[in-house]
Design a protein that fits this description.
single chain; 7 helices
């Protein structure tokens, strides 16, 4: 029953935010929403609330592609506020891209100063090394450069740089 899958997804999200015990609850919610969507498709129905709720859960775990697709689908089938949420996701991704590309307007001299006191490459990794799967036993060393201004929104999004001056 598709409504049961949707209810299960909502329960996982609610449990995560109320009890905050298991970070995988949001991923479980997304799986339940996906199964609910597939079940709705089988009976030829669509539920805008399911897509809207899936978009909100995806946005929270920073899966902006899934969030945007979910909000667009929710809007197409009549969810109030879905188009606005979709625009918020696009705006957020645009702001993040701009800040990382512009390196938060940090001057070259200041960036050099910021990266001087990072631990040695023997004890930590850069972002590129993490992405390449190199030195898997070492952690990523990073410094928070800026916190994105999003009053009343969670999670807090920090823009960081690594020892090589790479922003993410």
């Amino acid at each position: 029953d598709p409504q049961n899958w949707e209810t299960l997804g909502n329960a996982y999200v609610g449990n995560f935010f109320v009890n905050a015990k298991r970070p995988d609850e949001i991923k479980r919610a997304l799986i339940a929403y996906e199964k609910g969507d597939a079940a709705y498709d089988k009976i030829g129905k669509r539920n805008p609330t399911l897509h809207f709720n899936r978009g909100m859960a995806a946005k929270y775990i920073e899966d902006y592609d899934l969030a945007h697709r979910s909000f667009i689908k929710a809007h197409e089938i009549g969810a109030a506020g879905a188009a606005e949420e979709g625009r918020k996701v696009l705006d957020l991704v645009g702001r993040l891209a701009e800040q990382t590309e512009k390196k938060c307007d940090v001057k070259v001299k200041r960036l050099k100063e910021m990266t001087l006191d990072f631990p040695s490459s023997d004890t930590c990794r850069t972002l590129r090394e993490v992405q390449a799967g190199e030195k898997p036993t070492l952690g990523l060393a990073a410094r928070v450069v800026s916190v994105l201004d999003r009053p009343g929104e969670v999670p807090v999004i920090a823009i960081c740089c690594d020892a090589s001056g790479e922003f993410f």
